[in-house]
Specification:
This is FAD-binding oxidoreductase. Keywords: Oxidoreductase. It contains 10 helices and 22 strands. The protein is of the alpha/beta class. The strands form 4 sheets. Strands 6, 7, 8, 15, 16, 17, 18, 19 and 20 form a 9-stranded mixed β-sheet that branches. The chain has a 6-stranded mixed β-sheet with strand order 10-3-2-14-22-21, sandwiched between helices. A 4-stranded mixed β-sheet has the order 1-13-12-11, covered by helices on one side. Helix 1 packs parallel to helix 7 and helix 3 crosses helix 10. It is globular and about 65 Å long.
Length: 374
C-alpha cells in the first residue's frame, strides 16, 4: 500500500517548514521531505536580516509584514526565531533620491514605519559612517535579524507536534503526474500519494519541475558572507546596505559584523551539489575593505568567520510563489532570490490558504508563475 498525505512539502528550509506548520495547524495531513536536514540548504547560511524597505513596492509591502511577524513571533508562532532589533539604514545616492523619497511616502501611508534621514541625521546615528555621495538614507527602527536555523526548527517542531510527518534524509526524486495533474512524489524509498505538492526545494526545485514537464527559470548562485571583529570600543550601529558601493552588513554579537556583497561576480551561477565552498581570509578582507569605504570602524577589523551558500535566483530577482498553471495540484515556492527568509511566515500562510481554499492572497499576485512561465 502506498503512503498518503493531503499535502507533500518538498524542502525543509524556512519556507517549507512554515508551510508545513500552517498546513498542519489548519488540520491537513502533511509530509515534509528533505534530502538533507532541516535548514541544511541556503536557509541555514542566511544572515537572517529582516527589513522592510525595497525599491519594489510589492517586496516592501510583504517585507513590512515580515518584520512585524518576526518582531511579534511569540504571539503567533511556535518556538523561537531569535529576533534581535537593530534598526537598518539603506544608503541612497543622489540619482535615486527623488524616487526613493516618493516610495517612502507611499509606504509610510500604507503603514510602514520608515524615515528619510539626511546626511547629518545619518551621522547622528552612526558618527563614523562616511556620507560622501549620499543624498540620505531610509531608516527602519524595527528592522533586525533572526536565527534562520532556529526559525526553521521551530516551525518543523511545531508542525510535528500537530501531526505532520517530518522526514529528514528522504529525497524527492520525481513529482508524479497522471492525466496532467499531480498524484504524488516518488522518493528514494518509495512513493507517497497526494493531490497537493509544494515544491519548496530551492535551487533543486528546477530539476524537479523539469522532470514533471513544467520547467522553471531558476538557477543557483554562490553567495558568501564574512564575519569581522572590530578593534577597540564599538558603539552598536544599525544594519546597513549600500547598492552603489556594493555591500550590506548587520551587527552580530558585540564588536562583530556580518558583511555580504551586493552584485558583481559574487552572483556567478553554480551547481548547488558541487560548488566551491571555500572563502579565504583574503576574500573576507576584500569585503571588509569595500564596506570600510562607508563605515570607518571596519578599518583594521579582522576575520573571525565566514559562510558560503547559494541563492535560488529568478531572471527578475523576485520569488516564484503560486500554483503552477500547467500542473493542477502543484504549488511552487522557490526562486526566492535571497528574499525567502524575510517572507517565510507569509509564504507559509499563503500556501496553506491555497491548499484549503484554492485561492491566493492578492498580495502574492506579483510573484505568480505566469509572469515567467507559459
Amino acid at each position: 500500500m502506498h503512503e498518503y498525505a493531503d499535502v507533500i512539502v518538498i524542502g525543509a528550509g524556512t519556507t517549507g517548514t512554515a508551510a508545513a506548520w500552517h498546513l498542519a495547524r489548519a488540520g491537513a495531513s502533511v509530509r515534509l521531505l528533505d534530502k538533507g536536514a532541516i535548514a541544511s540548504g541556503s536557509s541555514g547560511a542566511s544572515p537572517g536580516i529582516v527589513r522592510a524597505y525595497y525599491s519594489d513596492p510589492a517586496l516592501s509591502y510583504l517585507a513590512t509584514q515580515g518584520v512585524r511577524a518576526y518582531r511579534e513571533w511569540p504571539q503567533h508562532y511556535p518556538g523561537a526565531c531569535g529576533y534581535q532589533r537593530t534598526g537598518f539604514l539603506t544608503g541612497i545616492a543622489g540619482h535615486a533620491q527623488a524616487t526613493t523619497q516618493a516610495n517612502v511616502a507611499r509606504l509610510r501611508a500604507a503603514g510602514a514605519p520608515l524615515e528619510w534621514l539626511c546626511p547629518e541625521q545619518i551621522r547622528e546615528r552612526v558618527p563614523d559612517l562616511y556620507t560622501d555621495g549620499l543624498a540620505g538614507a531610509v531608516y527602519e527602527p524595527d528592522a533586525g535579524y533572526c536565527d534562520p536555523r532556529l526559525t526553521a526548527r521551530s516551525f518543523a517542531a511545531g508542525a510535528s507536534a500537530l501531526g505532520a510527518v517530518i522526514e529528514e534524509g528522504r529525497a524527492a526524486r520525481r513529482i508524479v503526474r497522471q492525466a496532467g495533474r499531480v498524484i504524488g512524489v516518488q522518493t528514494d524509498c518509495g512513493f507517497i500519494a497526494s493531490s497537493h505538492v509544494i515544491n519548496a526545494a530551492g535551487p533543486w526545485a528546477a530539476a524537479l519541475a523539469a522532470e514533471c514537464g513544467a520547467p522553471l527559470p531558476i538557477h543557483a548562485t554562490r553567495q558568501c558572507v564574512g564575519i569581522l571583529e572590530v578593534c577597540g570600543a564599538d558603539k552598536p550601529m544599525p544594519g546597513y546596505c549600500d547598492r552603489d558601493v556594493g555591500f550590506y552588513l548587520r551587527p552580530d554579537r558585540p564588536g562583530s559584523y556580518v558583511i555580504g556583497a551586493l552584485g558583481g561576480a559574487e552572483g556567478a551561477p553554480i551547481d548547488p551539489d558541487a560548488f566551491d565552498g571555500t572563502f579565504s581570509d583574503t576574500q573576507v578582507l576584500a569585503y571588509r575593505d569595500r564596506a570600510a569605504q562607508r563605515v570607518q570602524r571596519l578599518l583594521g577589523a579582522q576575520p573571525i568567520g565566514r559562510r558560503v551558500s547559494f541563492f535560488d535566483d529568478t531572471p527578475d530577482g523576485n520569488p516564484l510563489l503560486g500554483p503552477d498553471p500547467r500542473v493542477p495540484g502543484l504549488m511552487v515556492a522557490a526562486g526566492l532570490s535571497g528574499h525567502g527568509f524575510k517572507f517565510a511566515p507569509l509564504f507559509g500562510q499563503a500556501i496553506a490558504q491555497w491548499v484549503l481554499t484554492g485561492e491566493m492572497s492578492a498580495a502574492m499576485a506579483p510573484f505568480a508563475l505566469q509572469r515567467l512561465v507559459g
